[in-house]
């Protein structure tokens, strides 16, 4: 006597994925909360046919990145670092300096660090478009406004 279990979960193929475009206004949004929602959507977990091994990410356009907020003393105490690979090549920046110079990088790093560290992270991040101001070049795709 053998039991046969059938899988009733719909497995989606990459050819069957229908991608949408969304635009998110980051004005007065808190960085961490926004980044966690964006990471959730980039993985496709908001979809009813979510399949873990398939890239189901919708394209997300973020505008007004320069008007993002950080709570508490994070502007001065949060430190971003990078290393050139050479001795003495450690570069440190506070969140305030990064927000003034490259506000897109602040959101990009927050979302990148909330995604799983696997092969799909690079593919998912290509679907995230971040702009410092209110204008973006993706008007032809008719992005839907997304309230987070």
List the SSEs and their pairings.
Elements: E1 21-25, H1 31-42, E2 59-63, H2 74-77, E3 79-83, E4 90-94, H3 95-101, H4 103-114, H5 120-125, E5 128-130, E6 144-145
Helix pairs in contact: 1-4, 3-4
Give the gist of this structure:
With 148 residues, this protein is α/β, with parallel strands linked by helices. The protein has a single domain (18-145), classed as Ribosomal protein L13 (Ribosomal Protein L13p, Chain: A, Alpha-Beta Complex). It has helices at residues 31-42, 74-77, 95-101, 103-114, 120-125, and strands spanning 21-25, 59-63, 79-83, 90-94, 128-130, 144-145.
Largest sheet geometry: 4 strands, parallel
Strand content: 15-25%
CATH class: Alpha Beta
Assign the CATH topology.
Answer: Ribosomal Protein L13p, Chain: A
With strands numbered from the N-terminus, the spatial order across the biggest sheet is 5-2-1-6
- Give Rg in angstroms: 19 Å
Shape: globular
Helix-strand string: EHEHEEHHHEE
